[in-house]
Amino acid sequence: MNDAPNSTAKTKPKIRLGTRNSPLAMVQAVETRARLCAAHGWGEDEVELVPVVASGDKVLDRPLAEIGGKALWTKELDAWLGEGRIDAAVHSAKDVETIRPDAFHFAACLPRADRRDALVGAASIADIPKGAVVGTSAPRRASQLLNLRPDCSVVTFRGNVATRLGKLEAGEADVTFLAAAGLERLGQTDVGAPLDEGAWVPAAGQGVIVLECRADDAVATAALAAIDDAPTRAEVEAERALLAGLGGTCHSPVAVLCRHSVGASLSMRAALFSPDGNERIEGEASFAPGDHAPVKALAADLLARATPGIAPHFGGA
Amino acid sequence: MGGYVLVVRPEPGLSATVAAANAVGLNAIGYPLFDIEPREWEAPDPDTIDALLIGSANAIRHGGENLKNFLGKPVYAVGQTTADIARDAGFEIALAGTGGLQKVIDAVPANTRLLRIAGAEHETLFPPESVEMCTAIAYESVPRELPEPLRPLHDLGLTVLLHSAAAAKQFVQESNRLALQRDRIALIVIGPRVAQAAGNGWRAIHVCDAPNDRAMLDMAQTVAI
């Protein structure tokens, strides 16, 4: 039984936030709580943190794509949210499936943190030793790496930040990747070298914490809306619209970078890869926040140009 | 099981311990309290040395080029892990101890001239009368601060693995700096000397029955809150 102070709080919580119980997830939940307290003038004991052990944290020896995909990060939280045991779920946006249950909606996106990947074990992609073994289970990272460095090989590498660093130290791989935002949130900014996002394209939603609640829960929706960051939301929604347009799954090697450009517009750059990294196609689009027609058009264009090694991994919309 | 297990030992042990903890189902995180950094040291004439006394694998890892002068000399090691690392580095192992470095030096044959390779902070040893010992300082522990994100994690209950008295002292200092609540923190210590260095007021202090990582993790599985 968890004996966290919040579970014995005398004050009835205004909102119950479900979160995975990994250290990083908990730190993200705490950041969410702090923002809610600041926005509404609540005390910490008015936001209850409810830790949930996610399936994705239990099975660590196989790639996520093999054992159920991103749903393994959300399954338990979805169940608790649906049952009303929690009022909102705290997620890393990049871990949330593209298609979500209609009963839920993203009520808030927190301001985007560092969206870059950090390379651990070498100072840059070019500095990775020839023939190195790269530990990752993310199709995007594996294919992008093999595209840039076909001399390397990839081994499955899962687990939280600490576990992956441990595997690296144990010599299971020469280098690995971690999200810079996660390292920053855990206070481990001395770990790894952030990779320039222009040369190494991140994942959709990377660096963003999203808060999901029941769509018919007006109280939670309103409470969470107070901490929504509109510019981040615009980026995340566009990136997820691209994924939806591509019909990608957790097996799909896709990288996307969307950011605010001059004026009120967004610019997007997306890259699709074949799993072996031999094939890569890219495209770009500019559009106004919320206008996803150009994003859908970019997805359609990428699908039309998809090469034989890429096409089977994207279903289209 | 709720709560987090905090590992604070320096690398390379840190990552290995965290990975082992997570592998047995603990929710572990690693924040090193020290970095181990090499120090320049002057090697004595190898002809004046019969054997090496090694109290930590760090002596081999950070001993640098000077170590090569002594390759082939027998090593008296504090424990099996240190002995294995010394062997891998090309040394011959005369003894791998089990009960501390003083017991190892007590077992060194008479008329041996020992070179002890140690860290800047090291325990005082009392060699037998017939054993000569000189000491070289080959590395030092540089303290690090614990990061702010530890504070919210400790709210949910923290079990800290402390592998040395120096780590205990540094953890006390850092937990004071971060205003961590001792009643939210249980300590698992590798031996009684470490417990003494940690002081009082903690939720619990558990002393391992064997001075190794395995015993600490076994204890963590039993007591982690």
Q: What is the secondary structure topology, with strand pairs?
A:
The complex is a heterodimer of chains A (317) and B (225).
Chain A: E1 15-20, H1 23-40, E2 47-52, H2 55-58, H3 64-67, H4 71-83, E3 88-92, E4 104-109, E5 117-120, E6 133-135, H5 139-148, E7 153-155, H6 161-169, E8 175-179, H7 180-185, E9 193-194, E10 209-214, H8 218-225, H9 230-246, E11 254-260, E12 266-273, E13 280-287, H10 293-304
Parallel strand pairs in A: 1-2, 1-3, 6-7, 6-8
Antiparallel strand pairs in A: 3-10, 4-10, 5-8, 5-9, 11-12, 12-13
Helix pairs in contact in A: 9-10
Chain B: E1 4-7, H1 13-23, E2 28-30, E3 34-38, E4 51-54, H2 57-61, E5 74-77, H3 80-88, E6 92-96, H4 101-106, E7 113-119, E8 132-143, H5 150-155, E9 158-162, H6 165-177, E10 185-189, H7 192-198, E11 204-207, H8 213-223
Parallel strand pairs in B: 1-2, 1-9, 4-5, 4-7, 5-6, 7-8, 9-10, 10-11
Antiparallel strand pairs in B: 3-8
Helix pairs in contact in B: 6-7
